[in-house]
Amino acid sequence: MWSVCKKELRQFFSSLTGYIAILVFLLVNGLVLFVFPDNIFDFGYATLDRFFQLAPWILLLLIPAITMRSFSDEFKSGTYEILQTKPLTRAQIISGKYLGSYFVAVIALLPTLVYIISIQQLSAGKGLDMGATIGSYIGLFFLAAVFTGIGICCSSFTSNAVVAFIAGMIVCALLYYGFSAISRLPALANGGDYYVEMIGIDFHYRSISRGLVDTRDIVYFISLIFLLFTVTSRNLLKR
């Protein structure tokens, strides 16, 4: 499993594409937070809410770009058959590719911790609400984990990396915000809206971002990742 994980990491960072993807992620966040109009200096108080609202949508583009070649390139080049001859189970292959891609997403997120230090130093008052900030980061790492699972799953359906990227981006968007949008329909205004919204990722991400880490949210994320692993495994079994 770890050999597959290291292979994924080497493949991603073997060209400038990997570094550029991470730099673009950090650059866009930095510009929106500190440079563009309505930045954090305009709020008048210490907050990272803008970052935690923006980051999921950027991850929605970044992570499918990371995962799109995971299986699609293996199918296209014919190396998946060679990979199957190794002393590795299907679960180990999927786990290795998943962890390799997830580590890249974590590497992209870790430098954003500098935002906490910067705002704390610039703040004239008590600074950030650390409970909510830590909760938001936990939610962000779980969100990245789910998006990685979606990207790996979509990549296992096609030998075309571009198709895998587009499919991963669309599925991430639908699962993240789609159910929240559906819950706003007038037909669901009598109580059904809450249960529909609860199916979506955004509901649980916002719940953790309040600073209260509920076990129901953790179970939701873990269950969704397990479901994506199962779909990926069954899809590979057909091949």
Structure description:
The chain has helices at 2-13, 16-34, 49-67, 72-77, 79-84, 90-109, 114-122, 130-155, 161-182, 192-199, 201-209, 215-238. It is mainly α. The chain has one domain. The longest helix is centred in the middle third of the chain and has 26 residues, at 130-155. The two termini are 20 Å apart.
Would you spell out the secondary-structure blueprint of this structure?
Blueprint: H1 2-13, H2 16-34, H3 49-67, H4 72-77, H5 79-84, H6 90-109, H7 114-122, H8 130-155, H9 161-182, H10 192-199, H11 201-209, H12 215-238
Radius of gyration: 19 Å
Question: Strand-residue fraction?
Answer: under 5%
Total tally of structural domains: 1
Shape: globular
Q: Give me the strand/helix succession.
A: HHHHHHHHHHHH
Termini, distance in Å?
20 Å
Please report the total strand number as a whole number.
0
Helix content range: over 70%
Strand-pairing-aware structural class: mainly alpha
Number of helices: 12
The residue ranges in which pLDDT falls below 50 over 5 or more consecutive positions are none
Biggest β-sheet: count, sense, barrel? none
Mean pLDDT: 84
